[in-house]
């Protein structure tokens, strides 16, 4: 099959539901391994009590994700998206398996050696995340908005699923010997299998769906070179440039600088959303919320509530009347979230666990909702190659926000005994 430069949409695009489900699963696979590591924080705090594992692992993860994403975003137009995503999911699979092997090899003992190994694997997760998240968001940005919404819902579902499984494993293994360790090992075994499944799903099934082939063919006809390998995997060859009468102007696109200047408010939105979220989640929830009636369950419940509301909120924009599309409205909503900083401070100091659970739920609700609104609105009106580039650039600003938030999270420890 050869791409025609007259890419008219068929009356019925088959496979939309299947593609939406696959996007959800691939989103889930993008963060399930990392969320597993975060969610078993109680196990790592038991293993490395003086090393601040929740904060340190996140702080190591983010620079590797950020630097890798910056390189990939700069070279986005020349990168084979298929290879990029497959490298990312494969690296996730191998790194998750090695977390399991590391714990088994050291018999679940603490110490600086195993901790350094864990930090190295955290860095691998960061590199894998930059490959997958930027690659998938760029790829889905020139398809229908439901796909990118489903992908981001999958990202949130990875946290909700990890939290739910963590609560179940805590119940199941709480009274057994080495219960924390058994639960953590079960986590990483499941994550390893799931990441491998994502490799197969993306490599074989996703590119052959009719609606996916249509959108990638359309992007190729508009000058995108990043989709060539995925089209080839679906049996489509891009001969557009060889056709008589092809308009070379179709391949002209805005530069990355022009795209950033035109979408600076969206980039700022994502930066500010994740600066706030990561300055609170997860380090503050593990180390600064004090002791309450829930005991060791308290941080797990807080993380579970954040993840659950983050997931639910990513479906709200599907209801047209509830979707926030105003650029000014989005910026006002993002800035108003910073009122949560004093709210968390005074609740941790004076409030009870109920108020903290409510605040964490609201943090997750606003995080997921605003993220999906920005990513589904921003690419509208651009050609395929520009949408791909913009998706990568927005993910870059998201990661800059996460890194800044992780660094600012350490400010909560100022004045705390033992710091």
From TrEMBL:
Species annotation: Glycine max (Soybean)
Annotated compartments: Membrane
Protein name stated in the entry: Equilibrative nucleotide transporter 3-like
Pfam families per UniProt: Nucleoside_tran
Keywords (A to Z) from UniProt: Membrane, Transmembrane, Transmembrane helix, Transport
GO cellular component, one term: plasma membrane
Family the entry assigns: Belongs to the SLC29A/ENT transporter (TC 2.A.57) family.
Annotated TM spans: 21-44, 56-74, 86-106, 112-132, 144-165, 185-206, 266-285, 297-317, 329-348, 354-378, 390-413
GO molecular function, one term: nucleoside transmembrane transporter activity
Record's bilayer topology term: Multi-pass membrane protein
InterPro entries registered for this protein in UniProt: Eqnu_transpt (IPR002259)
């Amino acid at each position: 099959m050869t791409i025609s430069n007259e890419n008219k949409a068929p009356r019925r695009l088959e496979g939309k539901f299947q593609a939406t489900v696959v996007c959800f699963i691939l989103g889930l696979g993008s963060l399930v391994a990392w969320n597993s590591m975060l969610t078993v924080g109680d196990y790592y705090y038991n293993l490395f009590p003086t090393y601040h594992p929740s904060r340190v692992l996140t702080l190591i993860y983010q620079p590797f994700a950020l630097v890798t994403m910056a390189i990939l975003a700069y070279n986005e137009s020349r990168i084979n998206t298929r290879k990029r995503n497959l490298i990312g999911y494969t690296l996730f699979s191998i790194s998750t398996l090695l977390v399991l092997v590391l714990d088994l090899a050291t018999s679940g003992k603490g110490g600086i050696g195993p901790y350094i190994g864990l930090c190295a694997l955290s860095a691998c997760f960061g590199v894998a995340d930059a490959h997958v998240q930027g690659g998938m968001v760029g790829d889905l940005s020139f398809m229908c908005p439901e796909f990118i919404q489903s992908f981001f819902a999958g990202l949130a579902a990875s946290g909700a699923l990890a939290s739910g499984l963590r609560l179940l494993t805590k119940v199941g293994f709480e009274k057994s010997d080495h219960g924390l360790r058994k639960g953590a090992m079960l986590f990483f075994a499941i994550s390893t299998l799931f990441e491998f499944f994502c490799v197969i799903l993306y490599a074989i099934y996703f590119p052959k769906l009719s609606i996916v082939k249509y959108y990638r063919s359309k992007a190729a006809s508009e000058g995108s070179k990043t989709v060539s390998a995925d089209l080839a995997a679906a049996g489509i060859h891009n001969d557009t440039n060889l056709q008589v009468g092809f308009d070379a102007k179709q391949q002209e696109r805005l530069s990355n600088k022009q795209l950033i200047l035109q979408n600076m408010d969206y980039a700022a939105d994502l930066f500010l959303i994740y600066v706030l979220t990561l300055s609170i989640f997860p380090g503050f929830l593990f180390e600064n919320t004090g002791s309450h009636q829930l005991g060791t369950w308290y941080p797990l419940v807080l993380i579970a509530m954040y993840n659950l509301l983050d997931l639910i909120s990513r479906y709200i924009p599907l209801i047209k009347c509830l979707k926030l599309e105003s650029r000014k409205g989005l910026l006002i909503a993002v800035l108003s979230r910073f009122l949560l900083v004093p709210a968390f401070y005074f609740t941790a100091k004076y409030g009870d666990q109920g108020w903290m659970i409510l605040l964490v739920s609201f943090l997750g609700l606003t995080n997921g909702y605003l993220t999906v609104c920005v990513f589904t609105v921003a690419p509208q009106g651009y050609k395929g190659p520009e949408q791909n580039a913009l998706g990568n650039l927005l993910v870059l600003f998201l990661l800059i926000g996460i890194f800044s938030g992780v660094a600012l999270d350490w400010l909560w420890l100022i004045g705390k005994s033992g710091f």
